[in-house]
Amino acid sequence: xxxxxxxxxxxxxxxxxxxxxxxxxxxxxxxxxxxxxxxxxxxxxxxxxxxxxxxxxxxxxxxxxxxxxxxxxxxxxxxxxxxxxxxxxxxxxxxxxxxxxxxxxxxxxxxxxxxxxxxxxxxxxxxxxxxxxxxxxxxxxxxxxxxxxxxxxxxxxxxxxxxxxxxxxxxxxxxxxxxxxxxxxxxxxxxxxxxxxxxxxxxxxxxxxxxxxxxxxxxxxxxxxxxxxxxxxxxxxxxxxxxxxxxxxxxxxxxxxxxxxxxxxxxxxxxxxxxxxxxxxxxxxxxxxxxxxxxxxxxxxxxxxxxxxxxxxxxxxxxxxxxxxxxxxxxxxxxxxxxxxxxxxxxxxxxxxxxxxxxxxxxxxxxxxxxxxxxxxxxxxxxxxxxxxxxxxxxxxxxxxxxxxxxxxxxxxxxxxxxxxxxxxxxxxxxxxxxxxxxxxxxxxxxxxxxxxxxxxxxxxxxxxxxxxxxxxxxxxxxxxxxxxxxxxxxxxxxxxxxxxxxxxxxxxxxxxxxxxxxxxxxxxxxxxxxxxxxxxxxxxxxxxxxxxxxxxxxxxxxxxxxxxxxxxxxxxxxxxxxxxxxxxxxxxxxxxxxxxxxxxxxxxx
Length: 606
Fold this sequence. Notes:
Layout: H1 8-17, E1 21-24, H2 33-43, E2 48-51, E3 61-63, H3 69-75, H4 82-98, E4 119-120, E5 129-131, E6 154-155, E7 159-163, E8 170-173, E9 177-178, E10 184-186, H5 194-205, E11 209-215, H6 219-224, H7 237-245, E12 250-253, E13 260-262, E14 267-273, E15 280-282, E16 285-286, E17 292-293, E18 296-298, E19 300-308, E20 314-316, H8 326-336, H9 338-344, E21 348-352, E22 362-367, H10 374-382, E23 393-397, H11 406-416, E24 423-429, E25 442-449, E26 482-486, E27 490-495, H12 502-511, E28 521-526, H13 534-543, H14 547-550, E29 551-556, E30 559-566, H15 587-596
Parallel strand pairs: 1-2, 3-20, 4-12, 22-23, 23-25, 27-28, 28-30
Antiparallel strand pairs: 2-3, 5-19, 6-9, 7-8, 7-11, 10-19, 11-14, 12-13, 14-19, 15-18, 16-17, 21-22, 24-25, 26-27, 29-30
Helix pairs in contact: 4-9
């Protein structure tokens, strides 16, 4: 284990010392420009960025702190993210021998999970400066307006602290906050979130819900706010932070609300939500799906104070078309919860949620297979584990392919799967940000069993995939905008959709062509998708399907194939909700950043 960090600035110092952070002294705008720079940087695997001169603000802004595996591991005081699994393995083996999670306190080795609760202090750096009354002004912070169609500026890296009004259990989560004016923001608490449950309880008790929002501080605490912490008494994001860093996090009582906040944060926003106040429009917002989340109604957070360090640094992130910084936060959780998943489903060798699957659209699973039907047992078991319930597609293999090797994993699964025979549809909860599901937060799922088959499951197949074919070597069709056959069994077709059923019709046509004899998956996508870019195709496809509605199994002379309609759905097709746009930066901002790239000192990064 490497060094841990008690605050943001010590982490920044370490990153800068190791060439993992650069300072930009040129003036930059928080309106779109920082987003474009940061987006390019994370996709180049470049360093974090500290903008020292943000137009219209007194405070510098740092972004990209978690934008690589190396930096994500450093943030948690680790050499690699796999160390998270290693640290938990012995601990949780003992837990399972005990047999009951609730007996954890009786097992000495497990006390580490609850033995490092937050440590309360009387004075804190984050309260060196206090704004109250007319001093409160969120407009002085360099809050980002991230994407062209966003409804306004959004606080994107907030650690939102609330307390259950009945049990007093504390929850810390990361929920975006649209800034409405100097003293009000939205609070994006979705129906599945703990904060939303706290608000419902406060309403039933006739109380306001006090809330505090930390910006910055211990980087492990920022990660913990994103982690799916299990609902075990005594374990929350504060104690998880203590476990990760090997010592308790220091907290101080907030100035105007009855909550404890991290003493080493950069800023604290204090205030309340009135559960009886009418919810306000929030959004649109360019979200981690790579699409805009449409405007909806959410609770309003009223500020009663802003406290901060002397010369604080404002932390931010952006989300959008993957890969983005959030992919590494997700990977950390994936590594942290691998061992608990293996304890419940011991045949799991490894799993991975690829960036193209945006955390909840795709899970790649490798198992040690011993009996028929085991792939479905594992896949359905995963769909019952915490946040995994939102997964849309689960691919299962028992081969030696690594689940992190995204293309090879798909190729291996399709090699050993007979569409229809080795696939299964299911229904269940879907992430509320999913725009393609049959209804809000409810939809269908697809499991594909790409394991070697036992006799009871039917004849094992080891299908030989196609070679790559470019558009000029594929049949023409008036509705085809572009197309490509990728090696490994894929035929990706893009089309400009103008009529109901166009995606299905085009997919069925392709399945009957001679060129389909060596493919196992045909996907029809929108014209903005590049058929030669596998990651782009899978990202678009998984975002745009409700599997039971949009995945057909079509029999051909060469066997069945998956035909998937990944086009936008129209009202004429019975889809009643509005379909969101993909996130695309404006040409004006792209050109502006191109022209300023060298003068900002970024020429060496490319």
